[in-house]
Amino acid sequence: KQEVTQIPAALSVPEGENLVLNCSFTDSAIYNLQWFRQDPGKGLTSLLLIQSSQREQTSGRLNASLDKSSGRSTLYIAASQPGDSATYLCATSQGGSEKLVFGKGTKLTVNP
Amino acid sequence: DTGVSQDPRHKITKRGQNVTFRCDPISEHNRLYWYRQTLGQGPEFLTYFQNEAQLEKSRLLSDRFSAERPKGSFSTLEIQRTEQGDSAMYLCATDSLSRREQFFGPGTRLTVL
């Protein structure tokens, strides 16, 4: 059974700082990995999708990496802004099942 | 706005009542998912449709829960005889077989009194 863990559970940084969010998973036989952002009381916004054959994906100030062999992914946010404040979730999908398995998320606060 | 819509956005009901939620997917997506999220947790998978066929169900989906996607377009999730433990955010997501990037709707917040 896949388990996804995100560390830290919460992170507070000053504006402008570069930061890294971590995601680990127990079963490396994943199909892909997705990073999401969730604002309070809202649905999830897809940020980046990394296929199992890829090592990283970039979108604007965001860069996500994937190391299947070690069961880890990181989300790098450059030059953080107060508008980046949200909960960030990672999720994996595996062969044989189409569902996503989520971590509990990292709550990010960027202080002006 | 991802293009996935859910209705209603909020539902307050009394214990024992039945409730039904609707999800309208992105038009070109033939796969549809339902998840449930409680406070401080990540979403948990409930069920998955490809076109009108329900292909996977979680053990979380007790016999009080039923989901349909009659014409392979919109989907409904019904909860019968609601319990206080059913209080949660119910999220719908859709994707295509070719890309498998799931896009989520805004969710339906259910409160059972």
Topology readout:
The complex is a heterodimer of chains A (112) and B (113).
Chain A: E1 4-7, E2 10-14, E3 19-25, E4 30-38, E5 44-51, E6 56-59, E7 62-67, E8 72-77, E9 86-94, E10 97-102, E11 106-111
Parallel strand pairs in A: 2-11
Antiparallel strand pairs in A: 1-3, 3-8, 4-5, 4-9, 6-7, 7-8, 9-10, 9-11
Chain B: E1 5-7, E2 10-13, E3 19-24, E4 31-37, E5 44-50, E6 53-57, E7 65-68, E8 75-79, E9 88-95, E10 103-104, E11 108-112
Parallel strand pairs in B: 2-11
Antiparallel strand pairs in B: 1-3, 3-8, 4-5, 4-9, 5-6, 7-8, 9-10, 9-11
Short description:
The complex is a heterodimer of chains A (about 110) and B (about 110). Chain A has about 110 residues and is mostly beta strands. Helix content of chain A is about 0%, strand content about 60%.
- Largest interface, with Cβ-Cβ < 8 Å? A-B, 24 and 29 residues
Helix count of chain B equals 0
Average pLDDT figure of chain B? 94
Low-pLDDT residue intervals, each spanning 5 or more residues of chain A:
none
Radius of gyration of chain B: 13 Å
The oligomerization state is heterodimer
Helical fraction of chain B: under 10%
The helix/strand series of chain A, from N terminus to C terminus, equals EEEEEEEEEEE
- Average predicted local confidence, pLDDT of chain A: 94
- Largest sheet composition of chain A: 6 strands, mixed
Taking the sheet with the most strands of chain B, its summary is:
7 strands, mixed
The proportion of strand residues of chain B reads over 45%
Give the overall shape of chain A, derived from the CA principal axes: globular
Number of strands of chain B: 11
Uncertain regions of chain B: pLDDT < 50 for 5+ in a row? none
Portion in beta strands of chain A: over 45%
Features:
heterodimer, A: 112 residues, mainly beta, 11 strands, B: 113 residues, seven-stranded mixed beta sheet
